[in-house]
Write a structure and sequence with these properties.
- Chain A: Keywords: Cytoplasm, Initiation factor, Protein biosynthesis.
- Chain A: It is found in: Cytoplasm, Cytosol.
- Chain A: Belongs to the eIF-2B gamma/epsilon subunits family.
- Chain A: This is Translation initiation factor eIF2B subunit epsilon.
- The complex is a heterodimer of chains A (722) and B (455).
- The N terminus of chain A is likely disordered.
- Chain A has 722 residues and is an alpha/beta fold.
- In chain A, strand 9 and strand 10 form a beta hairpin.
- In chain A, 43% of the residues lie in helices and 18% in strands.
- In chain A, helix 19 crosses helix 21.
- Chain B is 24% helix and 26% strand.
- The longest helix of chain B has 14 residues.
- The two termini of chain B are 48 Å apart.
- About 15% of the residues of chain B have low confidence.
- The chains are: A alpha/beta (722), B alpha/beta (455).
């Protein structure tokens, strides 16, 4: 008893000592090891990009200081010199109780490399906060830190606490308001242990899989789709050594977190800490840049707001969330709307309207300019009559009069947009040429591991800024300077997801419809899941499910064939190639050539219906053209009569359901197919025979083509007579 | 209440041989001297649910059960007995009697449920949410003897097993996922679109589907008609309804009545507005989407139905009699910790006890039973009209009616069915003795199942 008590008091007295010995440390990664902010990050590191006119890293450092961190190691990789120079000249180098040290590396290509290097330096002596330099927060660390320490004391394997926050992704786009992909986390509601972490990268269709051992070990698990990862981690020292042990860990989440969750040999555990009323978010892409800027202007992040952070230049907050620096020259007729920031020394001309935007320092904005939801950095010149909507305009850009930026445009440093030039939506414009190494999709896939070197290369590029700019001037209109970066194929349709511009309505509509469709097709999958189950008990059942499955497959197959066919039409693919492609599809979906014939014919007719026509005769002409042009493709899948009959049946089905316009033309098209020798008369006659016994309702088309069939029969008889 | 109750009483069960026989079908298997079916019927009567259909497997069994019910529940209950063929499954049984179903909602209860959860509460939950299906969930029962002094091996069985994996919404009102049978041994696959709609789902493995469901009749009949391969309520129909709750139009497009109640429960009104706005703006829908359009061409939102859960409080008692172990447990509990189930207790005129015979707590002796001198009874149930000799020791056992036990017998952890004769100095440990069996003098059995050969 006595000994125990003594032990207890000893521990109590130890604790403050321990705390005193180890000042709270933080590792700040001043490189995102990603390419989302290109082309801007080719010239300036992401952490120095202005967020409501203050470099992002200042928000992070200000938070760390307020949260009681005493020692910060800033890890610089790409553009390390710029970061170091900035930090040296900033207020941070001279704080009394807050030391900022930089660690420079030129060959780290991932967060994993960075942490391995820091481990080698042996500067971290206890628990530390791991954060990247693009995080804005105002949360209190005390409680999370306390929880972490207590857990660690009880269980040495509890090495990390992740901060999460409520944020429900949009039901339509499946992404959060920060533009990050949806995230599924399984958390034990009692212990808050993280059991499963799945971002969209691991996409298994329609289902989330939970390991059975998790369920066995935890009587209750809460699976969250409504949480956002704040990328603020409280780590124990072991985390660094783990990165060193597992030299293949690169990405903090994808490799490290998932690696720990999967690996049950070492038994390391990760816990979560949910914040409710405070703010924490990371700028991951342009959309989060936009969202977080708005949050800052609306003061959700207080005290991380511009008027508090930069006390030196007096910034006044006016009504409706308008921030104005002291010496702004504003024309009397200019209108500055709500939630707008105007930086020092900026001049704004007559009748200019600015709303929901940030305008940096030393900008010159002419008359009759409209700026809406845009981010204009420092020393930008915008001449008269320009229009900007949801764009980011970097330092030193010149927009000549009448230029227009459509939503989602990014203008990198010192770009010049020519007179009256309209920059198309989602364009990224830079003085630097697009790095060619990025052209392959595969490269993009591993962007995380290559970006570091990419950014490094760009530093070299930085030296010799495009000497032959005059050549490309036409890309941005007369007098324009800069390259419009081409978007990689495949990413193009995803561009809107991470853009500063709000998601256009038609995209939402499309997504909704897609989702519906997906759910319908998913139904098959769902049933097949139970089919597996039933296979044990009931064979009939599973057979039935198989049928549903195969019907489902057919739907997919038909879509694929249609897509192939459309591509063949639009890109003038040779018929032989199209045949090959359809054949490949046939093999991969395990379909018969009957199905191919049906699907191709379906696609042809669908296209004929969809191409513009004003009358039935034009439609007939369309169909005739289509059939004439692609008869070879169709014929290569028509080997026997059954397949030809399938075509007729398919056509009948279309006339009834999807392409009713053809109903009137049924006999004509049938005749056409006969004339083109796509259908033999035997096929048509056998179809007629088969239909003879059907219901009245099924015979509509048979009746319509009665004449034609009669004619065929007579012709046949004549043949026989011969 | 416009609630019709279907009691699926069953008839034969392989799990319970040799306890049940032709003469004693499963519904009539005595638990603490009452047929197991009594407990369900009693609870239903308490909840004022009096319009019942009792479904029994097999004609003979139906006659037995019908006879007993008419004897016991003369007052108040309106009971129909329906006999269905054996081995057609729970869904098959419902299909067979579906023409009898007329009420708006149907409560389906398993006849082997021994529980103090009021069925009326389940029905009320169902009505309150206007759900398509409401399932009663209870805590997983702790199996095995509470006082595990007798054998150490039982400690293992006391670890709660897993019967279901259940997904609930944060308010624990809606059933979002359910896995039964062999599925729980696999990795769980949870549907993303349901998760998208609710945001977070709690996954519990410590709850059990107690096989008490309230269905909307129209939905139930639709599913029974359309999915004729479905055999089991628990394994097929309920999981199917849960899976398809956000896209029920695929299933229920034949039903014209208002089913579009569910969408607003899961998506906030804001989204609703957005969604309808978007749909209103939608141009012509594509070919593969006949479902999102009404026949008249007007746009509509997706139809959904609600699947609810009624979670019994952890203090309530709820066990299904579907194994020998459960039978032992229930007998023990009903005389012990859950003795409130026998509210109108029926311990008859005190049985005749010999001198120095002790009957411990948590015991029950049926009327007309006699015991000789120096007997010991602990934690056991003894039925009616048993004749028990002297120096008999009965521990942790169930002895049914009309059993004759000779002098000096020792019975531990065993079940002795009706009309069994145990001659002198028989020792039974962890045995099951089928009805009418005769154990000859001085025999010792351990862990065996003894039954008469069927003639």
């Amino acid at each position: 008893m006595g000994a125990q008590k003594k032990g207890a008091t000893a521990r109590v007295s130890e604790d403050p000592e321990e705390l005193a010995r180890n000042p709270l440390q933080a590792i700040l990664l001043a490189d995102s090891f990603a390419t989302t902010f290109r082309p801007i990050t080719l010239e300036r590191p992401k952490v120095l990009l202005p967020l409501v006119n203050i470099p992002m890293i200042d928000y992070t450092l200000a938070w760390l200081e307020s949260a009681g961190v005493e020692e910060v190691f800033v890890f610089c990789c790409a553009h390390s010199k710029q970061v170091i120079d900035y930090l040296e000249s900033s207020q941070w180098s001279s704080q009394p109780n807050f030391s900022v040290a930089t660690i420079e590396s030129h060959n780290s290509i991932s967060a994993g490399d960075a942490l391995r290097l820091i481990y080698e330096r042996n500067v971290i002596h206890g628990d530390f906060v791991l954060i990247s330099g693009d995080t804005v927060s105002n949360m209190l660390l005390t409680q999370a830190l306390q929880e972490h320490k207590e857990r660690k004391k009880k269980d040495a394997n509890a090495i990390m606490t992740m901060v999460v926050k409520q944020s429900k992704p949009s039901p339509i786009t499946q992404q959060s308001r920060l533009g990050t992909d949806e995230l599924f986390m399984a958390i034990n509601p009692v212990t808050k242990q993280l059991l499963c972490y799945e971002d969209k990268a691991e996409y298994s269709k329609g289902f989330i899989s939970l390991d059975k051992t998790l369920i066995a070990d935890n009587p209750s698990i809460i699976l969250h789709n409504d949480k956002q990862d704040c990328y603020i981690d409280i780590c124990s020292q072991e985390v660094l050594s783990l990165f060193t042990d597992n030299f293949d860990y690169q990405h903090l989440r994808r490799h490290f977190v998932k690696g720990l969750l999967v690996d049950d040999i070492m038994g390391y555990k990760i816990f979560t800490h949910e914040i409710h009323s405070s703010y924490a978010a990371r700028i991951d892409n342009f959309r989060s840049y936009d969202t977080i800027s708005k949050d800052i202007i609306q003061r959700w992040t207080y005290p991380s707001v511009p008027d508090v952070l930069c006390g030196s230049t007096a910034i006044k907050v006016e009504r409706q969330g308008t921030y104005r620096a002291s010496d702004v020259t504003l024309s009397r007729s200019a209108h500055v709307g709500s939630f707008t920031f105007i930086g020092q020394g900026t001049k704004i001309g007559n009748d200019t309207k600015i709303s929901h935007s940030v305008v940096g320092e030393g900008c010159t904005i002419g008359s009759n300019v409209t700026i809406e939801g845009s981010y204009i950095w420092n020393n930008v010149t915008i001449e008269d009559g320009c229009q900007l909507r949801h764009a980011i305009v970097c330092d030193g850009v010149i927009m000549k009069s009448g230029a227009v930026l459509q939503p989602g445009v990014i203008l990198s440093f010192k770009v010049v947009v020519g007179q009256q030039f309209v920059v198309p939506a989602y364009s990224k414009v830079s003085l630097l040429q697009q790095p060619t190494q990025q052209d392959s999709d595969e490269e993009l896939e591993y962007a995380d591991s290559t970006s570091g070197t990419g950014e490094l290369q760009s530093e070299k590029l930085n030296g010799d800024i495009a000497p032959d700019l005059s050549e490309t001037a036409s890309e941005l209109g007369t007098g324009g300077v800069g390259y419009i970066w081409s978007v990689f194929e495949g990413v193009q349709d995803e561009e809107w997801r991470h853009s500063v511009a709000p998601i256009p309505t038609d995209k939402l509509v499309k997504l909704m419809l897609d989702e519906d469709e997906e759910q319908l097709t998913q139904d098959g999958n769902v049933l097949s899941a139970s089919g597996e189950l039933k296979a044990d008990s009931d064979d009939n059942g599973s057979e039935d499910e198989n049928n549903e499955d195969s019907r489902d497959d057919y739907v997919f197959f038909e879509k694929e064939v249609e897509a192939t066919f459309l591509r063949a039409v639009h890109e003038n693919v040779k018929v032989d190639h199209a045949v090959l492609e359809v054949n490949a599809l046939r093999l991969s979906y395990n379909m018969a050539s009957v199905d191919c014939a049906g699907a191709i014919f379906y696609s042809m007719m669908k296209l004929a219906v969809e191409s513009p026509h004003s009358s039935a005769s034009e439609l007939h002409k369309n169909a005739a053209e289509m059939i004439t042009k692609w008869q070879k493709l169709l014929k290569s899948f028509l080997h026997d009569i059954d397949e030809e009959i399938e075509v007729i049946l398919k056509f009948e089905e279309m006339c009834l359901e999807s392409a009713k316009e053809f109903a009137a033309l049924f006999p004509q098209v049938l005749h056409l197919l006969y004339d083109k020798e796509i259908l033999q008369e035997d096929a048509i006659l056998r179809w007629a025979d088969e239909k003879e016994g059907a219901d009245e309702s099924d015979k509509v088309f048979l009746k319509r083509s009665e004449k034609f069939i009669q004619w065929l029969k007579e012709a046949e008889e004549e043949d026989d007579d011969d | 209440m416009d609630f019709q109750v279907v009691v699926l009483a069953g008839g034969n069960s392989k799990n319970l041989t040799p306890l049940i026989s032709k003469d004693v079908p499963k519904p009539l298997l005595p638990v603490a001297n009452r047929p197991v079916l009594y407990y369900v019927l009693h609870q239903l009567r308490q909840s004022n649910l009096k319009d019942l259909i009792v479904v029994v497997e097999g004609e003979d069994a139906a006659l037995h059960v019908g006879g007993w019910i008419s004897k016991t529940f003369v007052d108040g209950l309106h009971v129909e007995i329906a006999a269905v063929p054996e081995d057609i499954g729970t869904a098959g049984a419902l299909r067979a009697i579906s023409h009898h179903l007329t009420a708006k909602d149907i409560l389906v209860v398993s006849g082997d449920l021994v529980s103090d959860v009021p069925p009326g509460a389940v029905a009320a939950t169902h009505r309150r949410h206007d759900a398509a299906v409401t399932a009663m969930l209870c805590s997983v029962p702790v199996s095995g003897s509470l006082e595990s002094g007798s054998s150490g091996g039982k400690d293992k069985t006391r670890k709660p097993g897993r019967y279901n994996i259940i997904g609930l919404d944060p308010c624990k009102q809606f059933l979002l996922h359910i896995a039964t049978g062999s599925e729980i041994e696999k990795d769980s696959r949870l549907q993303k679109h349901i998760l998208h709609a609710v945001g977070q789902m709690e996954i519990r493995s410590d709850l059990m589907d107690a096989h008490m469901y309230a269905f909307k009749r129209s939905v139930l009949q639709e599913v029974l008609d359309q999915k004729d391969t479905f055999q089991s309520l628990k394994q097929d129909i309920v999981p199917y309804l849960v899976r398809s709750q956000l896209k029920s139009e695929a299933l229920l497009n034949g039903i014209s009545q208002a089913e579009e109640n569910g969408n607003e429960k899961l998506s906030s009104p804001n989204n609703q507005v957005l969604v309808s706005k978007i749909l209103a703006n939608a141009s012509t829908p594509s070919f593969h989407e006949p479902y999102s359009m009404e026949p008249d061409g007007s746009a509509q939102t997706r139809k959904t139905h609600k699947c609810c859960a009624y979670i019994a409080s952890s203090s309530s008692y709820c066990v299904r009699l579907n194994s020998i172990q459960a039978f032992m447990d229930i007998n023990r509990d009903v005389t012990g910790e859950a003795d409130h189930l026998l509210s109108d207790n029926i311990i008859g005129p005190s049985p005749k006890l010999g001198t120095k015979t002790t009957v411990g707590p948590h015991c029950m002796l049926g009327e007309g039973s006699e015991m000789g001198d120096k007997c010991q009874v602990k934690r056991s149930v003894i039925g009616r009209h048993c004749r028990i000799g002297s120096h008999v020791k009965i521990v942790n056992s169930v002895v049914m009616n009309h059993v004759t036990i000779g002098d000096g017998c020792i019975i531990q952890g065993s079940v002795v069915c009706s009309n069994v004769q145990l001659q002198e100095r028989v020792v039974l440990k962890d045995c099951l003795v089928g009805a009418g069996f005769v154990v000859t003098m001085g025999n010792e059995y351990k862990g065996e199942s003894l039954a008469r050969k069927e003639k």
